[in-house]
Write a structure and sequence with these properties.
By secondary structure, the protein is mainly alpha-helical. The chain has a two-stranded antiparallel sheet with strand order 1-2. The chain folds into two domains: 146 residues, no CATH class; 54 residues, no CATH class. The chain is built from ten helices and two strands, in the order H-H-H-H-H-E-E-H-H-H-H-H. It is found in: Cell membrane. Pfam families: CbiQ (PF02361). One of its GO terms (biological process) is cobalt ion transport. This is Cobalt ECF transporter T component CbiQ. InterPro entries: ABC/ECF_trnsptr_transmembrane, ECF_CbiQ, ECF_transporter_component.
Length: 250
């Protein structure tokens, strides 16, 4: 079962990174994230090296810096929280441009920003070079719980269907002169949400019955081989191994 189209984060390509089996990339990104999280906040050179490693991966995958920067907006809540920590933090304080800031808060802010940014960039590169359906197949190859993989698969498949139903309901309301100006329109929106939930639930029941009638026994069939050889595992492992090396020598 496919998603029907490419996800907006995915960038089709035929690079070495794109051709890697998804389980290799998932494990490499997870190991890289562990190294980043384990890095002491004082290791500035290590953090700079991690960023250069991700830049090298982006170059090999032909993912432009602009593409990555535009999608890093998801990090904005972390950035706002990080900027607030030095202001509200306790302990020793210093003055920067006339603003009193906590020393411990500045360290905590740097720690959050550096590690969160590296994690977000790594995740963006993973999503840009791996189709969502392939990512789920990779998770299945890594022995993730079958139930979780199947739930994620159906969520991916039917998310656009549910969103399209929401758009049609919105158009239908507006064509009848409805405009959500204040809380007085809340009951109508609540009824629309309830109707959408019932439709989605009934669709899920129909899909499940259709699957059972076609021999579904609790596992989804895999129609293409995504096994990885030693060379591919070594290529994918170069990112976390290089990051670990930077941590030890910095």
């Amino acid at each position: 079962m496919g998603a029907g189209h490419h996800h907006q984060l995915y960038r089709p390509g035929d690079t070495l990174v794109h051709r890697l089996p998804p389980q290799c990339k998932l494990l490499a990104v997870a190991a890289f994230a562990i190294v980043v999280v384990a890095t002491p906040r004082e290791r500035f050179l290590a953090f700079g090296g991690y960023l250069l490693l991700l830049a090298a991966v982006a170059a090999v995958a032909r993912v432009s810096p602009g593409f990555v920067l535009r999608r890093m907006v998801v990090e904005l809540p972390f950035v706002l929280f990080a900027f607030a920590i030095p202001v509200i933090g306790l302990g020793e304080r210093i003055s920067i441009w006339g603003v009193s800031l906590s020393v411990d808060g500045l360290w905590a802010s740097w720690n959050i920003l550096a590690k969160a940014t590296l994690g977000v960039i790594a995740s963006i590169l993973l999503a840009a070079t791996t189709e969502p359906r392939s990512m789920l197949l990779g998770a299945q190859r890594l022995r993730m719980p079958q139930l979780l993989v199947q739930i994620a698969t159906f969520m991916l498949r039917y998310l656009d269907v549910v969103l399209d139903a929401m758009r049609r309901m919105k158009v239908a309301r507006e064509s009848r002169g409805f405009q959500a100006r204040d809380l007085r329109q809340a009951p109508i929106l609540a009824k629309s949400a309830g109707a959408l939930f019932i439709r989605s639930y009934e669709r899920g029941e129909r899909v499940h019955l259709a699957m059972l009638s076609r021999g579904y026994t609790g596992t989804m069939p895999v129609y293409r081989d995504i096994s990885a050889d030693v060379r591919q595992w070594l290529f994918a492992g170069a990112l976390p191994v290089a990051a670990a090396a930077l941590l030890f020598i910095s």
